[in-house]
Design goal:
This protein folds into 2 domains: about 5-240, P-loop containing nucleotide triphosphate hydrolases (Rossmann fold); about 250-429, Nucleotidyltransferase, domain 5 (2-Layer Sandwich). The protein is built from 19 helices and 14 strands. It has helices spanning about 5-15, 20-30, 35-40, 60-75, 85-100, 105, 135-140, 160-165, 170, 190-200, 220-225, 230-240, 250-260, 315-325, 340-350, 360-375, 385-390, 405-415, 425-429, and strands at about 50-55, 80-85, 110-115, 120-125, 130-135, 150, 175-180, 205-210, 275-280, 290-295, 300-310, 330-335, 350-355, 380. The strands form 2 sheets. Strands 3-4-5-2-6-7-1-8 form an 8-stranded mixed beta sheet, sandwiched between helices. Helix 4 packs across helix 5, helix 14 (about 315-325) crosses helix 15 and helix 16 packs across helix 18. The radius of gyration is 24 Å and the shape is elongated. Bound molecules: adenosine-5'-triphosphate (ATP) and magnesium ion. Magnesium ion (MG) binds near residues 59, 60 and 91. The site of magnesium ion (MG) has 3 residues, from helix 4.
Amino acid sequence: MLTRDRVAEVLTQAARDAGDALSFCRRWLGWEPHEGQQRWLVAPRRNTAVLVTGRRWGKSEVSAIQALHFAVTHPRSRQGIVSVTLDQARLSFDVALAICQREPLLGALVEKVKETPFPTLRLKTGSEITVRTAAREGIYLRGHKFHRCIVDEADYLSERLIDEVVRMTLADVGGQLVLISTPRARRGLVYRELQRGLAGDPTVYAQTGPTFENPNVRHDYIRSLRDHMTAAAWQREVEGVYADDDAAVFGWQHIQAAYEASTWALPEPPKKGRRYCQGVDLAKAEDWTVHTVLDATSRPHRLVHWERYQRMPWPAVAARIREVHQRYDCHQTLIDATGVGDAVLDEVRDVAQGFVFTRRSKVDLLTGLQVVLEKRELVFPFIRELVDELQGYAWDDDKLQTDCVMSLALAVWAAGPRTGVEFAPSVWG
Ligand SMILES: Nc1ncnc2c1ncn2[C@@H]1O[C@H](COP(=O)(O)OP(=O)(O)OP(=O)(O)O)[C@@H](O)[C@H]1O
Ligand SMILES: [Mg+2]
């Protein structure tokens, strides 16, 4: 009779013979990569591999499968999947886990799955795939050694973190750095590595591609989003190319500096003696209601609570505003009092004040946010919706989704004027 160990041995041998990544996908997983994914999977191995594409291209899925292929064909290898938050890094890892659970052949190769302190998948080949966040200056990565390090949504990580922390994990064994991202900042490391690869640098493999290369997502739905994005955001998020964002309202380097400086998780419970402020942007029709609470005791202001939801009746929204206000004993709660906001304001007038949007007051409100970001007077934990909305914001915002930006701007406004900046009289007069 075959023992478990013997089965594992046979499987390990079979895995070694699994062949290239394409036959592995087809024969072992019954998974058919689209054309762009095929090119990525058969690309020559280089020290650095860069994949920059539109959203929903299939980056996370293909990198999960590639990591599995590497793990079965390279016994005792260690791979790290890294991203700006643990949740973001988990996406690929969870795909890999799901495949192992679905495919008996692969499942039989799994030795164990650990969840803490970090999600880790160990195969009987002795190979490991583990997940890390780059948060807190990369503290969870320091001292680790990897044969491959896959950085998902790499453009959210600063150049310094990739150079000083991520690359160090590969130094001992001359491991491979895999940078995967939707484009963000033209001045960043991913952009430069991509250019090097495209220019023919033999140490870098580079590939780009639009979302439409993935036949498994709804192309008509994606096209319908075009009206709600700036031209630059469309280029980045769908065409997968770096857009010129010098004219952006909120500069990428300031946004990045704001979330990189955070060390805490959300929500941070209220503490005695702190001065909190809440900003609320109310949903109109299909969009979101967003609450932002800042600890504005000193500068930089720190974001301590953030939530968003859709399709809640007004009385429930009002109750939520009141609840958050009381929980943090807010110095001020400021809500968007335009249109539908009026009705909500009526119910919470004892705790909240309304901000009336006019052309003038809106510019002042957003300029206030611009200033605190540029002066590094605001820090917040990484929240992808907020970060992306800040980057995609434009003055002409009629068709854009702006709830996160407005809620944050209202909270900053509620925190009070900086000296030297004049605010519209509507609230402070
Ligand atoms: N080869 C494939 N066959 C079937 N479905 C696929 C394939 N590749 C990707 N998909 C599906 O396409 C969708 C997007 O994939 P994935 O999440 O990997 O993309 P992504 O580029 O990482 O997206 P995001 O930019 O949102 O992070 C998912 O629903 C995924 O299951
Ligand atoms: Mg992804």
